[in-house]
Amino acid sequence: MVISSIADGLTRGIEGVSDSISETFFEPVIRLGVTGLSRAGKTVFITSLVANLMDRGRMPGLVAAGDGRISAAFLQPQPDDTVPRFDYETHLGALTGATPHWPESTRAVSELRLSLRVRPSGLLSGFSGPRTVHLDIVDYPGEWLLDLGLMDKDFATWSAEMLTRLEGRGEGAEYLALAKETDGAAALEEPKAQALARAYTAYLTEARDAGYSDCTPGRFLLPGDLEGSPVLTFAPLPKPDSTPRKSLWREMERRFEAYKSRVVTPFFRDHFARIDRQVVLVDVLGAIHRGPAAVEDMRQAMADILGAFRPGRNAFLSRLLRGRRVEKILFAATKADHLHHTQHGALAGIMSALMREARDRADFAGAETRAMAIAALRATTEETRPHEGGSVDCVRGTLLNEDGSRGKQAAFYPGALPDDPARLLTPARQGAEKWLDADYQVMRFAPAPLTLRPGDGPPHIRLDRAAQFLFGDRL
Ligand SMILES: Nc1nc2c(ncn2[C@@H]2O[C@H](COP(=O)(O)OP(=O)(O)OP(=O)(O)O)[C@@H](O)[C@H]2O)c(=O)[nH]1
Ligand SMILES: [Mg+2]
Which is it for the CA torsion 57, 60, 65, 66, positive or negative? Predict the structure, then answer.
């Protein structure tokens, strides 16, 4: 499937450039945002989605594909010339090569345009020929959404809030001590500013590794090509009594404002504000495995991230969106191939409950929402094994060693997820240290070597249903 489709996509793509301009008005564009915290599975999701839209044999749940109305799918040059292209071919090569491996971590926004030739359905089908629908897929780190909280704050307010938060955290002690002995009224010395920013970044890194998700400014952790630039060289400070011109405080304040206007605003304006449909990927199983604190932290991070989807609360975002809104949001618990299908319902239930708590605070400005358990790339097969006189439903796959090499084949049972999500979410919220009735395991599996029938994309779980919810109505 792979080679022919890519080659096909390339030649067609080139044809496409010349005739696309006049047609643009008649060709609907769907901008699909794909986000999630780091390692949630964004890259694998996009790669497998695109591969499965090119070869649609495993996409019966996408109605237009099931009905055979999609006659072609091809990659085209994306419309945004300054955004890095999602490196589909490299990621697909990683996942489907002779010794398949997971793709590298990606740390910035990227975009890909997939165009579909679709025959209309229903009454219109006899009257009009196929149309082209463009799917612009935008991959961006969920962490960047957390910066929205900075937009309606000034430096003094943000500093005070951050320093208070650090008080309660062991990870923050070192930075706090440094900030307290710093005189913000003194004249700016660049090495001092850099040392503060470095120490604050070190705190953020530690806090993130400890499982906290409220780690702003988000770009400190994922700086990309901004690394070392003044917009990333600030840190929260206690406000001195006087803040003379050219003081450290004044310069930090200026850089904070620059971060908002030069880093955060362009992201929301150029990417976020243009999204029509959104999928938020969540590694629920990974969090459950790490324990109640990780689950609670993830719930809070989700609520913060999802704040971006209720623009009414944020003056900055309301101005930017001017009434535009995301029409559908899918919350997908990823990596469901770690579980036997008999447990997928429970996983979707937990995803839904996590999302419901966030939704209680806002209605997502009218967006339609859904929760699902999916696996973008299925790395396991199911197996029922005898166990203590009964049987147990497992999954089997190739284990992934710590160093990334492929380990041995193993059957694996992660533990029974409760049917009632409250059995996990309540102790998490109450600050339990470990799960009471059960222990949940997670293994990392390597992607399985694939031999695909012509017309079939890579194996997945419910990727077709996810696609149907996200954009099936527009095909
Ligand atoms: N078994 C299984 N593992 C998956 C699946 N999707 C992702 N993973 C695992 O999750 C890891 C992260 O996936 P990515 O797609 O790179 O995640 P990401 O969100 O793009 O991560 P960053 O680019 O680092 O933000 C992979 O290396 C795999 O180990 C899946 O469908 N099944
Ligand atoms: Mg990625």
Answer: positive
- Among residues 195, 203, 176, the alpha carbon closest in space to that of 233 is found at 195
Residue 377 beta carbon below 6 angstroms from any ligand 1 atom = yes
Alpha carbons 178 and 199: distance in angstroms, whole number? 8
Taking the C-alpha atoms of residue 132 and residue 148, their distance in angstroms, rounded to an integer, is: 35
Query: b/e per residue, 108-138, with b = 16+ CB within 10 A?
Result: bbbbbbbbbbbbbeeeeeeeeeebbbbbbbb
Q: How far apart are CA 49 and CA 118, in angstroms?
A: 17
Q: Report the b/e string of 26-37 with b at 16+ CB within 10 A.
A: eeebbbbbbbbb
Q: What is the structure's pLDDT at 15? A: 41
Q: Residue 236's CB: how many other CB atoms inside 10 A?
A: 23
User: From ligand 1's centre to the CA of 448, what distance in Å?
Assistant: 14
Whose tokens are 């404002």? That residue is 257
Q: Find out whether the beta carbon of 180 lies less than 6 Å from any atom of ligand 1.
A: no
How far does residue 107's CA lie from ligand 2's centre (Å)? 7
What is the rounded CA–CA span in Å between residue 217 and residue 256? 9
Per-residue pLDDT, averaged over 166-178, amounts to 89
Expressed in angstroms and rounded, the spacing between residue 170 Cα and the centre of ligand 2 is 30
pLDDT at 23: 47
Separation between Cα atoms, residue 197 and residue 203, nearest integer Å: 10
- 103 Cβ below 6 A of ligand 1: yes
Residues facing 400 on adjacent strands: 406
- Whether 412 lines ligand 1, by a CB cut-off of 6 Å, is no
Cα angle 143, 149, 152; round to 5: 150
Report whether 113 contacts 78 (CB < 8 A). Answer: yes
At residue 297, φ and ψ (nearest 5 deg) are -65, -40
- Closest ligand 1 atom number to CA of residue 45: 15
Q: How far apart are CA 420 and CA 132, in angstroms?
A: 44
Residue identified by tokens 């077709």 is: 464
Q: Identify the band that residue 126 occupies on the pLDDT scale cut at 50, 70 and 90.
A: low
Q: Taking residues 375-384, report their average pLDDT.
A: 95
Which candidate, 431, 170, 143, 142, places its Cα nearest to that of 296? 431
DSSP 435-465: -SS------PBPPPP--PPTT-----BSHHH
Spatial strand order of the sheet with 406-412 comes to 381-387, 390-400, 406-412
- CA–centroid distance, 212 to ligand 2, in Å, is 20
pLDDT at residue 365, as a whole number? 62
Q: Is 58 in the pocket of ligand 1 (CB under 6 A)?
A: no
Q: Rounded to whole angstroms, how far apart are CA atoms 365 and 378?
A: 34
